[in-house]
Design brief:
Distance between the termini: 97 Å
Strand content: under 5%
Structural class: mainly alpha
Length: 97
């Protein structure tokens, strides 16, 4: 069995070093991109939630700060329809008759 010469060993060594370097570069770029996209997504979500909260509070729907539960809009209809709506509403137990 013939031993490998110097040229094939150097070629395999160079190929191995190149593969390791490309792998390390890929891992670094992948981690940096993932971190940047995650931070950007978090910031966009916080921004969207803040604007949604302003819209909800601006319409009088947000009652978190006051700590009160508002009367639902469907209770403001006539008594005949109102009793039917309250009977089938999920808030009937909370809002009362």
């Amino acid at each position: 069995m013939r031993r490998w010469g110097l040229r094939p060993r150097v070629t395999v060594l160079i190929v191995g070093v190149v593969v390791v370097c490309v792998g390390i570069a890929f891992a670094a770029v992948y981690a940096g991109t993932a971190r940047e996209l995650s931070a950007r997504s978090r910031q966009d979500l916080r921004s969207d939630m803040a604007s949604l909260e302003q819209v909800v509070v601006g319409q009088g729907i947000g009652h978190r700060q006051a700590g009160t539960i508002p009367q639902p809009c469907y209770q403001k209809v006539s008594s005949a329809c109102g009793s039917a709506l309250r009977r089938y509403s999920p808030m009937a137990a909370v809002a009362g008759p």
